[in-house]
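Check out a protein:
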Amino acid sequence: MSVPVLVNIQNSQIIGRIDKPVVRIGRAISYCDIVIENFDVSRAHCNILCRGDSNYFIVDTQSANGTSVGDTILKANEEYPLKNHDYIKISNEIFLFVIPQDEV
């Protein structure tokens, strides 16, 4: 079974897989599942949550420089639903959330 991935839109590289119920994203190597090496990204910037049958959400964890999905700036600690091919901006980095075809 395929799992969703985050793709860096600058170089089309997969930066991480959403392969467990909570995937932590940020700069801290010791804490995060997906590490973004950028000082504008908080140590623990945001989380992607998987609930039930392919229901995905993103939560900004009180980051310094914010998280957005498309044009929507997320409020800290509030879940926001993710859809296939959503653009996620983590500070000044932009990623594409991709759910493989067999899970859409």
About this structure: The chain has a mean pLDDT of 95. The chain has one domain: 5-103. The chain is about 0% helix and 45% strand.
